[in-house]
Structure formats: C-alpha cells, structure tokens
Amino acid sequence: MNRRARIGLAALAAITVAATAAGCGLGPGKGTGDVTLTVTRAFGQSRVGTVTRASVPGSETVMRMLERSFRVQTRYGGGFVESIDGQSGNPNRLDWFYYINGIEAPIGAAGTAVHHGDRIWWDLHDWSATNSVPAVVGSFPEPFLHGIGGRRLPTTVECTPDATAACATVAGAIGRSGAPVARQLFGTGSGSDSLNVLVGPWRELHTVIAGALIEKGPAASGVYARFSAGGSTLQLLDPRGRVVRTLGAGAGLVAATATRSSKPTWLITGTDATGVRSAAAALSTTRLADRFALAVTPTGDLPVPLQAGR
Question: How far apart are the C-alpha atoms of 264 and 274, rounded to whole Å?
Fold first, then answer.
C-alpha cells in the first residue's frame, strides 16, 4: 500500500473520530489564541505564506484553520490535503506533511485540535528517502515553550563535560523563550515524560538512541545528515538521501528526531568543540526558522536536506 493510500485510510479514521466526538457533545469550547500557521515547500526552503491568529474558535482543527487561511483542495472525504494555494503533490513521492510545534502529526488534520500557542507548519516535499520526519527544528522555541497537545513538558539539557560553554548557550536560549529548563550531565537520564536536548561532540552523542537513529540515515531518523570518520566529518544529504557535501573541522548540526513511542530529542552537536559551540549559537528563531535541520559551518548556515549545488 503506497503512502497516499495509507494516509487516505488514516484521514477517514480521523474524520470518523472527530465526528463521533462532536456527536458526544464536545462542541465549541472557550477558544484559544496566539496560533501561527506557516506553509512552505521543499523542506522549508520556499515559503508559500504564513498567518498568525490572535484568537481561534474553541472547536478549531488544523484543517479548518488551514482552509480559513489558504485555498485548499482535499481528497479522501476532506481528510487529505492535495494542494494549498495551487501548490500540489503528485504520485512521484511529493506530498504535503504537517507539524505542530516541530513534531510530525500522528493523525489527519481534520482530527487534530488547535491549542494555545501552537506553531502549525505545512510543507510540500519529496519523501523518496523517508515518508516520516518525526521532528524538525524550524518552529523553535517549540516544542519547549508550549509542548505537545496543549501540555508543556519539562525540558532537560544534557551536556558532555567538554561542552560547558555550549551547554550554557543552549540552556540560555531555551530559558529566554519562557520555557523552564534544567541542566545535567550527559548520560544522567531525564525520564520518558520530558523533552531532552543533548549537547556535545558527535563522538560522544552517537551512543544514545537518537544518535543511533541518525547514523542509520533519514529512513530511520528523518534527519538528512550523518557523521562519518568517527565523527570528524559531517555529511549533508539531498532530498533523495544522497551525500552532496562533506564538512570537516568546525562543522555543527542542530537536529531533532524521535521514535514512534518517544518524545522528540534535540541534538546540538558537531565534529569538534568549535562545531558544537557554533551549533549552540544557532539556537534562535531567526536562524532556525523553517529549517528541518541546520548545519553550521565556519562560513555560514546550510539548511538540511541540502539541495544539489549548495
């Protein structure tokens, strides 16, 4: 069964759930606000449009907000987005995906409620290398500020002993956003009901679950980058999962990933201490905006995946 067929079945299920809930008397509630909806294409590298709503109805879903804000064509009974403002997917592995607070949505947009402060992001991209990118960094300071499903989670920054300065930079950036954050030594563990940020060189971070996923490639992690040569080089991949550029000393990476059963883990890492510090300094709304992941070099930032020719 191809991706479109699977999504169609999931969308119909989400619509059924939403209709059942409405029939049980869960009608419009109090309402909420400060919700941003962004639409991009090509892994965030081309912006279609963005809107911010100071207030939204209590019954608002991601699909309703999208349809209020853009021209939308759907399939499968209104549960699958076919095009937004004339930008369409196609059978050649090009489709729309959406994320809430930097986390890939598990169900169709028609069955997903909007919560206060949500950052909703739709992107049209090639899914040849993977049909799932579980977490992205381009909605920073989410998910740390407003969390998941309207519930803010504790954030723990775990740092290797040789990343003290970078650790302070990362914790400061998250803390200034308004999200409470705790710091601890790498390997201490933070529990399953929290958001974890790992800071340190790749030679140390690759041993954790999130690191192992990235080493397996985008099909496992959704991250279009991987380290090689014991962590001393960083390979950047294109949307098809092919290596198009290799970085050496001073290269950093800001990325996020997750398993099906875990909360997202962010990794602020690099080929060496300089790369880790550079990646930590990139933790800002301006530099991470609309990025699935971000590679940092001594000469500038590179969005990941990397388009050929960059």
Answer: 25
Could you give the C-alpha distances from 33 to 103, 140, 143, in angstroms and in order? 19, 18, 17
Looking at the chain, the number of H-run helices and the number of E-run strands are 8, 18
Cα angle 257, 260, 261 (rounded to 5 degrees) comes to 105
Residue 47 pairs with which residues in a beta bridge? 40
Q: Give the whole-angstrom CA distance, residue 101 versus residue 301.
A: 22
Provide φ and ψ at 164, rounded to 5°. Answer: -60, -45
Place of tokens 């804000």: 69
Tell me what pLDDT residue 233 has: 98
Range 15-23 average pLDDT: 39
Other beta carbons within 10 Å of 177: 17
Q: Where are the domains of the chain?
A: 3-126, 155-304
Fold entry, domain 3-126 = Ferric Hydroxamate Uptake Protein; Chain A, domain 1 (2.170.130)
Quick: pLDDT tens for 185-231: 998 876 678 899 999 999 999 999 999 999 999 999 999 999 999 99
Q: Average pLDDT in the 58-80 region?
A: 90
Tokens of 21: 């809930």
For 77-137, give the DSSP string.
Answer: TTTEEEEETTEE-BTTTEEEEEEETTEE-SS-GGG-B--TT-EEEEEEEE-SS-S---B-S
Q: Specify the CATH superfamily of domain 155-304.
A: Chitobiase/beta-hexosaminidase domain 2-like (3.30.379.10)
To 5 degrees, how large is the angle CA 71–CA 88–CA 293? 100
Q: What angle do CA 5, 11, 16 make, to 5 degrees?
A: 135
Question: Would you give the end-to-end CA distance of the chain in angstroms?
Answer: 35
pLDDT of residue 15: 43
Reported pTM: 0.90
Contact call for residues 68 and 104 (beta carbons, < 8 A): no
